[in-house]
């Protein structure tokens, strides 16, 4: 007899940083003053107390913030000693001719078995086809050949790059971070919807339900503001290709971990048990090859 899936919650997207150990220059933005401090796994444990569909936080995926290999090494070493962190999304210079050597070193180093995916902050690149550069594609192939996945971080106007990436790398598992950052605050979703549907047509691409509240009005958003994006993602990708993520502590700018958890709980009302499991644990477990739970 096959046992039912364990009722656990995986946070497939959060960050950690220790400002005494490693600077985070992006936090110099005056709008980010409230999160300009150190955040540790213990901070996450004490914060993430709200259950979602009766499930409490069980494991997480820690995601890089700065384009520096030493930060990835820090996260991997932390994951090796921290049971809450089950996988790491790291950074390496995809444009470097030495990308293969760098990845081999990371995978063989402390916590290297926790490295499951790479990410680059394409959202900050002004080149309109950055993901299609020959040197970037060489780096992506090196990641693929080592069994790694790729976390796609683009803004909504860059989704065409994500679509071309999916077309050119059908054998590289990809996950769209923060749903491609739809303009929830401005309400301009038509083009985003069309692009998301095109991306979702590629079955090797999945999507994170994360970072949505910081794309809404930080002070006044409600569940009603999030629902159109949620509904589109559920229709386009289906629950088996969606995963819950908090984007904590960045989420603190717009309400925090527990408020986002409560919102997801409300949005799950019409979903069945198997859909809930996929959204809250199953998709992340499969994509990031997390420990199986039965």
UniProtKB/TrEMBL annotation:
One Pfam family, short name: Amidohydro_2
PROSITE patterns: RHODANESE_3
Highest taxon above the source species: Bacteria
Domain Rhodanese: 250-269
Entry similarity comment: Belongs to the metallo-dependent hydrolases superfamily.
Name by which UniProt lists this protein: Amidohydrolase family protein
Taxonomic lineage from the root: Bacteria, Bacillati, Actinomycetota, Actinomycetes, Kitasatosporales
């Amino acid at each position: 007899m096959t046992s039912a899936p364990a009722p656990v919650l995986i946070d497939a997207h959060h960050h950690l940083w220790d400002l005494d150990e490693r600077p985070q220059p992006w936090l110099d933005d005056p709008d980010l003053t409230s999160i300009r401090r150190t955040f540790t796994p213990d901070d996450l444990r004490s914060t993430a107390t709200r259950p979602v569909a009766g499930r409490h936080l069980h494991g997480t995926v820690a995601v890089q913030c700065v384009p520096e290999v030493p930060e990835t090494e820090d996260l991997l070493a932390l994951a090796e000693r921290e049971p809450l962190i089950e996988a790491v999304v790291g950074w390496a210079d995809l444009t470097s001719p030495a990308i293969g050597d760098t990845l081999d070193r990371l995978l063989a180093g402390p916590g290297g078995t926790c490295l499951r995916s790479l990410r680059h902050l394409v959202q900050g690149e002004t080149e309109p086809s950055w993901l299609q550069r020959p040197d970037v594609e060489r780096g992506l192939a090196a990641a693929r050949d080592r069994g790694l996945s790729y976390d796609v971080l683009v803004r909504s106007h860059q989704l065409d790059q994500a679509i071309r990436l999916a077309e050119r790398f059908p054998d590289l598992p990809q996950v769209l971070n923060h749903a491609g950052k739809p303009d929830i605050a401005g309400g301009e979703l038509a083009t985003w919807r069309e692009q998301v549907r095109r991306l979702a047509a590629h079955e090797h691409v999945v999507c994170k339900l994360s970072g949505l509240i910081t794309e809404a009005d930080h002070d006044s958003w409600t569940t009603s503001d999030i629902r159109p994006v949620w509904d589109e993602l559920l229709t386009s990708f289906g629950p088996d290709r969606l995963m819950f993520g908090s984007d904590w502590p960045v989420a603190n700018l717009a309400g925090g971990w527990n408020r986002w958890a409560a919102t997801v709980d409300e949005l799950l009302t019409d979903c069945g048990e198997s859909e809930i499991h996929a959204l809250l644990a199953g998709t992340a477990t499969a994509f990031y090859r997390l420990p199986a739970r039965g």
